[in-house]
Specification:
The complex is a heterodimer of chains A (253) and B (317). With 253 residues, chain A is α/β, with parallel strands linked by helices. Chain A has 10 helices and 10 strands. Chain B is mainly alpha-helical. Classes of the chains: A alpha/beta (253), B mainly alpha (317).
């Protein structure tokens, strides 16, 4: 594997029971770039991104073959602790999923479970994360209100802040705007572009315009296969594979 | 369209028949509606009827004994001359036995719910869940029998007591009986915690134990408390078992190792010998009424908590 890669998958196959969801996926994620994964529903794009922080292990009856590297280390080795991987590779989900706790506790949770006890430190980190997630101005006067009282878009930014608090190296976004309105979507997209400076980002999206707007690289998945992977510009302007072109021009999907 | 012209072709008499048929169908539909409405509302009628009878039959005692000395009187001697109607010993017996039962059924019920929902694999769950539910289907007299034959001599020997039929015995058996209620309701509460909460927790690097303690249990907390309250409601209303194993002494209990007479046992044991319409008879009805109020309050509280629980988790039902 190339040293310039942040994450990299090598011949990854994934099965739900006997059904193969991913076939021989080889994909590189470059540091401080946004990598978008597009494709029609059921093409395995969410399944793939959830492998990158070993989230699919929580689903029973699944099999995984191949290798996934993070900074050159194979994260699928039995000696690797998935909890440690998930701390380094954070994830934001399709539906905003704040805990039924207050805003402060939602963010400090990640620090607490990583045994950080220093109160001053936690407070500083919470403020910092909220600022980074562009939510601070909206919630600074009500940090102890329930997170469930926030709007959908605010909740999603809160979930991003919750991820940022544990200082991951990679951020995975699994259709982060699927349940948001256009204005909230724009805010999240702006945020992704901002976060790119400090983090490596992978985003799964349904929305091709979104991929075109935020990503540097794009991979197109179809029926569990990676059809094409290239610079976003290339994928959208001059795709090599006719299936990619068909999808992007809206002929199916 | 073809159908319409076919109907038109059949003349006026068949048209009337068709109209009559439709009319009959509508009447029939209304009739079914009424029958099911009557069935559904019958439980309300029974509830009102029961409350009415409890009220009517218990009120006369309060003209003889004031409510305060009825509730807080220390002596229950309904057949003495003059009789004394203080039900404090009975209330305290019920409270002690119920609290004791909670000590048994909360760890057992909540613990097994946690195991079923969080740890057990599919096979283990398939074996365990029906087993726990079978516990609920054993008749209470069988539990009582079990208490008399096994627990009573055991307690008598271990604590060298004059009798093994004590509050502790009743607590233990009642606790076992309430366990399936607590377990299955707590398990429901845990399974209502959305998977997204767990995923969010794992995604920031929490392990399974931290997720359970800090996210799943707090999120299911009010649901679990509902389970516990309904378990209490089950324990305090249970009659046959306490009648068989609690010992039956209507005195204020000082320890769990004394025989006690909970409210339900008093009613069941004495109703047969209390002359109808007498003070004793009315006093027993008053006990029943108080018991009804207690369980009613438990159920209301449980309902309020569980409603808040559903709102909290965003479940609209």
């Amino acid at each position: 594997m190339d040293d310039s890669m942040k994450m990299c998958s090598e011949n990854v196959n994934f099965f739900y029971g006997r059904q193969q969801a991913l076939k021989e996926i080889n994909l590189n994620i470059l540091p401080n770039k946004v990598t978008a994964i597009i494709g029609p529903s059921g093409c395995g794009k969410s399944t793939f991104i959830r492998l990158l922080n070993r989230m699919n292990e929580l689903v029973p009856h699944t099999t995984l073959t191949g290798r996934i590297y993070l900074d050159g280390q194979d994260i699928l080795m039995p000696c690797v602790d998935p909890v440690e991987i998930r701390r380094r590779v954070g994830m934001v989900f399709q539906k905003p999923n704040p805990f039924p706790k207050n805003i402060f506790e939602n963010i400090s949770y990640g620090l607490e479970v990583n045994s950080i006890r220093n109160k001053r430190f936690i407070e500083e980190r919470v403020v910092e994360s909220l600022k980074k997630a562009a939510l601070w101005d909206e919630v600074k006067d009500r940090l102890y209100d329930s997170a469930l009282n926030l709007s959908g878009g605010q909740q999603q930014r809160l979930c991003i802040a919750r991820c940022l608090a544990v200082k991951p190296e990679v951020l995975l976004f699994d259709e982060p705007c699927a349940s948001l309105d256009p204005i909230s979507t724009r805010k999240v997209e702006e945020l992704i572009l901002e976060l790119k400076k400090d983090y490596t980002i992978a985003i799964v999206t349904h929305n091709m315009q979104q991929a075109a707007r935020v990503s540097d690289y794009t991979g197109f998945f179809l029926l569990g296969e990676l059809i094409e992977f290239d610079k976003t510009e290339k994928i959208f302007k001059a795709p090599e594979d006719h299936r990619t072109e068909d999808y992007i021009t809206g002929r199916f999907g | 369209m073809a159908c319409l012209s076919w109907k038109r072709g059949r003349g006026p008499s068949s048209c009337r028949a068709q109209f009559l048929g439709e009319h009959m169908a509508r009447v029939k539909e209304k009739l079914y509606e009424w029958i099911f409405a009557a069935l559904a509302f019958s439980s309300l009628v029974f509830l009102i009827g029961i409350v009415w009878v409890l009220c009517k039959e218990s009120l006369p005692i309060f003209s003889r004994v004031p409510l305060g000395s009825f509730l807080f009187g220390k002596f229950w001697y309904p057949t003495y001359c003059p009789p004394e109607f203080g039900i404090l010993p009975l209330i305290l017996s019920s409270v002690w036995v119920t609290l004791g039962a909670m000590v048994v059924c909360v760890p057992l019920g909540v613990g097994s719910a946690l195991y079923l929902n969080e740890v057990a694999n599919f096979r283990q769950r398939q074996i365990l869940k029906p087993m726990i539910e079978i516990l609920a289907s054993i008749p209470s007299v069988v539990y009582g029998f079990f208490g008399v034959v096994l627990v009573t001599p055991f307690l008598q020997k271990v604590f060298s007591l004059p009798t093994g039929m004590t509050a502790l015995n009743a607590s233990f058996i009642l606790g076992l009986m309430a366990t399936p209620t607590v377990c299955s309701l707590a398990e429901d509460a845990l399974s209502y915690v959305p998977r997204s909460f767990r995923e969010a927790s794992f995604a920031v690097g929490a392990d399974r134990w931290q997720t359970l303690i800090k996210v799943v249990i707090p999120a299911a907390g009010s649901g679990i408390s509902t389970a516990i309250i309904l378990g209490m409601s089950r324990a305090i209303g249970e009659t046959m078992t306490v009648l068989m194993v609690a010992g039956g002494a209507a005195v204020i209990p000082k320890t769990l190792l004394e025989p006690v007479r909970p409210m339900t046992a008093a009613i069941a044991a004495e109703m047969g010998e209390a002359p109808m319409g007498g003070d004793h008879y009315h006093a027993l009805f008053a006990i029943a009424f108080i018991l009804f109020i207690i369980t009613f309050v438990f159920n209301i509280v449980a309902e309020i908590i569980s409603r808040r629980f559903r709102i909290k988790l965003g479940i609209s039902r």
